[in-house]
Write a structure and sequence with these properties.
single chain, 73 residues, 0% strand, transmembrane helix, membrane
Length: 73
Amino acid sequence: MAEHHDTAPAELGAPMDYTEHEKTYNLFLSLSKWGVVTCVGLVAAMAFGFFAGGFFSATILFILICVAAWFVL
């Protein structure tokens, strides 16, 4: 039978570092949230630039969407 080691995998009974798991999960959620905000803002700005016909105005809209998301989320 396997001996108990603190450096063994979790399947063998090693203690879990829950604080590190929570920090990693929170980072994952944050990166996912900002990735979605960036993609939605980019698509909205590209559509606005296509229909309004301006690169500069689309860039300003993208920046405004990202700043608004920063304050709302």
